[in-house]
Design brief:
Layout (H helix, E strand, L loop, with lengths): L1 H20 L2 E3 L1 H11 L1 H21 L5 E6 L2 E2 L4 E2 L8 E9 L4 H67 L5 H36 L5 E3 L15 H11 L1 H22 L5 E8 L8 E7 L9 H49 L2 H15 L5 H36 L5
Parallel strand pairs: 1-6
Antiparallel strand pairs: 2-5, 3-4, 5-7, 7-8
Helix pairs in contact: 1-4, 2-4, 3-4, 4-5, 4-7, 4-10, 5-10, 6-8, 7-8, 8-10, 9-10
Length: 416
Amino acid sequence: MRTLLSLCFIIGITVTGISQAQQKPITLDEAEKLFLKSNLMLLAQQYNISAKQALIIQAKAYPNPTFNADFNVIDPQNHKTFHIDSSGQKSFQIQQLILLGGKRKTEVDIAKQNKILAEAEFAELLRNLKVQLHRNFYSINEHKIVIENYEKQLNILDTIIDAYKVQVNKGNLPLKDIIRLKSVYIKINNNKSELSSNYNEEQKNIKLLLQINQDVTPVIEEGSYKPYTDLKALNDLQTLALSNRPDLKIADESALIAALNLKYQKRQVIPDIAVNASYDQRGGAFKNQINAGITMPLPILNTNRGNVRAAEYDKKSMDLYVQEKKLEVELDIQQAWQNMQRSIIEYNKVSAMFNEEFKQVNTGVNDNFFKKNISILEFVDFVEAYNESLAEFERIKTQLAVSAAEINFVTATKVY
């Protein structure tokens, strides 16, 4: 029986090794580089920036001139058709629209601001996707460690239960012992199934971010959590956020575009003029006359008041939005800082308690149970307590790393 129980450790290690061999080991830095290179959403947003750059070129273009030609089709006096020779009639006119009031310059300014806005939107998309990558990366690592622990214990319990069945059938052990072991097995298996579902969902998300079809195995050194325990000053983080947050820049740029649109609508009141030059062979007062002219609408019936008023309201709305966004940024920093502070305290406490002694005791309990030095109740209680402690410690480690990622997210700066 003791030989069978010892065999379960080998089974657990072997199963885990096969699972890892089918995955892609990757560090966080490697994942970020692959993400920046391959993510299709980022590539699509970069095309949007290029499109906005093209619109700047278009805004700088001046209106094309227009050309008009008029030819005689029927000459009833001379009974001719298409009488356009030297004794007939034809006329030509060329006209150029001239924009006044700085409209073209304002259009160019709006196009330039739209490009800056697109760049800020790209930075905001990058910020959101990167924090999602960090969350998935550390959550996958947490769940992987806990699931592997569950797998090892299920293999151990499976072997123990089989051995106990033989002894129960022989009448050497009571039935309640095997029922207790089966209950623990079912509980651990349910926990593993639930966690595996979350693990698979996170694998799907990170594979979409990295544009790969292979499961990811996070490579994290234990010492990599230590730098996260350095709590930065709240005021410094707020200063960084107000300077670097792309969503705040989006709000600022949107307000600036609203102001430019108001300026543009006011300038629309100023009429544009069209200058023209024409040649008329015989249709005017004189033969072969050359004329020049000017065309200008009179701003009497339509002074663009509706558009001006709408632009004024849009500007006021955007100014209020910028104020609200600044407050939101400050509150984001406060919340992230408080979460970071709590995560550091919890990590420092738990990491000091969950040390090598836990693993030594775990090994000792297993050995003593195999030697029948402890009861099945003591063994089961320790297994459950160890599982909860390990899961909690991994959760706190993930919480600390994610809290650090949130600090980077809310400041739009690589603080950690």
